[in-house]
C-alpha cells in the first residue's frame, strides 16, 4: 500500500509539473506568448517580463518533477505548488473578465489543484501507514 501511495504522489506531482512547464513555451517570444494568453505582446517590456515569467514557471515545473521522485523535498513542493496555483486562481476570481485563453489556464490550474490535493492525501496516508 505504501508503494502505491508513493507512486500516486509521484504521478500527481508529475502532472502538476507538466502543467507548470507548459508556459515555458512563452520564452520563445511574443508569438508564443500571444497564443498562450490571447494578448498582444508587441511592447518589448511586457514581452521581457512575460518571457521571464515563463522561465520561472519552467524552474517550478522542473522542481515539481524532481520532487515527484525525491520524497524528502515533497513537502516543500506541495507548499510551493499550492501557493502558485491558489494565488493565480484567487487573482483570476477576484479580477474576473478574463479571456478564453486565461480561462483555459484557470481550468489547468484547477486540474493541478485537484492533483495536488490527491498527492497530499496519498503522501499523508503513506506516512501514516509506516
Radius of gyration: 16 Å
What is the rounded distance between the termini?
Answer: 10 Å
Shape: elongated
What is the H/E string?
Answer: HHHHH
**Which runs of at least 5 residues are low in confidence (pLDDT < 50)?**
none
Q: Total domains, how many?
A: 1
The secondary structure category is mainly alpha
For the largest beta-sheet, the strand count, sense and barrel status come to: none
Strand content: under 5%
Helix content: over 70%
Average residue-wise pLDDT: 96
How would you describe what is shown here?
The protein is mainly alpha-helical and 130 residues long. The protein has one domain. It has five helices and no strands. The radius of gyration is 16 Å and the shape is elongated. The model has no long low-confidence stretch (mean pLDDT 96).
State the gist of this model:
With 130 residues, the protein is mostly helical. Helix content is 81%, strand content 0%. The longest helix has 30 residues.
